[in-house]
Amino acid sequence: MIVYQNSKKQFLDDVFSNDIENIIHDFYRKKLQKRSQKNEIRSWRESMHYMDRILRDDAIPDNCGVSIEYQIPQTGKRIDFILSGQNADGEDQVILVELKQWSEAKLTGQDGLVSTRFEHGQALTSHPAYQAWSYATLLQGFNQTIYDENIGLIPCAYLHNYPPDDVILNPFYQGYIDKAPVFLKYDAKKLQDFIKQHVKYGDTTDILYRIDSGKIKPSKALADSLAAMLKGQQEFVLIDEQKVVYETALALVKGHQSEKQILIVEGGPGTGKSVVAINLLVALTKLGLLAQYVSKNAAPRAVYEAKLSGTLRATAIRNLFKGSGVYIDVLPDTFDALIIDEAHRLNAQGGLYGNQGENQIKELIRSSKTSIFFIDEDQRVTLKDIGDKQEIYKWGNLAGAKIIEVELSSQFRCNGSDGYLAWLDQVLDIRETANDNIAELAYDFRVLDSPTSLRELILEKNKVNNKARMVAGYCWNWISKKDPSVYDIDMPAYDFRIRWNLTTDGSLWIISPESVNEIGCIHTCQGLEVDYIGVVIGPDLIIRDGEVITDASKRAKSDKSTNHYKSYLAKQPESGPDFIDSIIKNTYRALMTRGMKGCYIFCTDAETNAYFKEKLSDFRRSE
């Protein structure tokens, strides 16, 4: 999606009007359905005046295309400035310019990262050359038009306030500067010549329009890419906060002295927590350090292990991926690092009867020199989930650990739409976000009139690459577990019957080819993703007069998420109701964010279905 698009000539006129920042902001509000921050509006005003000076050269054709704030497909990231045209050979060229208003930075010694001064002190961030290169790589990886039509992408960075020093152009970053040249305060002529070198003729073929409306390439699936990563192939380009988190964690583990260390990584659905976690596992393993990937939920581990079958020995695979309850008797500091994904799902005790060990967080911290917790407190979905920052700090402080917090916010699921997640939080009454609709978002969200039509849509989408599945709130007993001939969910009014996922697939349900004919729950899909998800919202969440009401009594008896909720309420009369309410809302939030490209829902309660339809009344889906 492009926020602002025009010819070079019109761009210069818009800057000359002395209102360029408001012109961009008007497009921004229209296209993205939100207001920009004041500091971003100020940056448009300043940076666009600098780009105006660069482009005021008659050798740069007036009919070149200028695009501002182009959102990279399937991410929440935007490219600052794009110039499109043709080179001397008549080939389509796109120059991507990352604009920075920095005036100083510091070396870090960490690959692709610098330290910059912000309002509240120093902060690690991507080097501008790395950032420009990574954005170009992402765009090339997501857009079929660029690949098929051989459109040239030329990234660079322009730091128009930054005087020359020994930091930004330091040889340490030369590998990235070679891929994306950096132009500083006194380099306006150099940038001008760079543009003229690559663009001689104007954009007569609507290059950016073709890119923006082009077919999106399938996203890389983490599980599918794991074997290649272990062989040394770079499958994922980490950007911005992902790169910062990765390098921070790597430096902590490699530089460990005697002090125990904890890194807490916060991030919502689709921000790349698992991608960073797996990249860390691969990197540390290659360095000869003893590291393991840990998750309480068996489903992600099972999928990763299945994808590695035939690539590594079974014992090697088992030594890489572990459940969270196996560290009870492990000696202190046995591991260089434990990488705990989905840490919000950790329990106090494990084992078949939930009575083994003392506390999983304590045991994980004790067992490793460095513990890396990837966490999203809004994805706690059972009464036993104890994984929150307060609990990690409690045991970390008792262990005398150094604790660092970092955050992931870039969105890589739900077509990169932060707006969809904010809208979801609003309509599920998880938090107030002011996102009342998802108009203009390139995410396929639909409310179906029956579970039958929902299933038909998922079956159709699944024909493409076996990446569409149905899930539901756990509101129906799992009776087919003992009698495979019966159906768990039976809605005669819709002529709809379906079984919960079979035990034969176990945790591999989400990738089993035949499982599209079954329905999963939160326990078989959390931590994993598909292209399209179909969600049946059961009677545990209903809407009455616009109010979201949850009811744990409507959960199935076989669901352990809210087992003994009445006794829990008796013990926690003040905080208990809100926590149980959040568990049910978080469950549906998690289910409704499993789809990278689309989410389709059907609510068993008619008023609830009508509520979601009303919230979508202004929704114009962008195919």
TrEMBL record:
Lineage, top-rank taxon, reads: Bacteria
**InterPro entries the UniProt entry points to:** P-loop_NTPase, SLFN_3-like_DNA/RNA_helicase
According to the entry, every stretch annotated as the Schlafen group 3-like DNA/RNA helicase domain falls at 260-605
Q: What is this protein called?
A: DUF2075 domain-containing protein
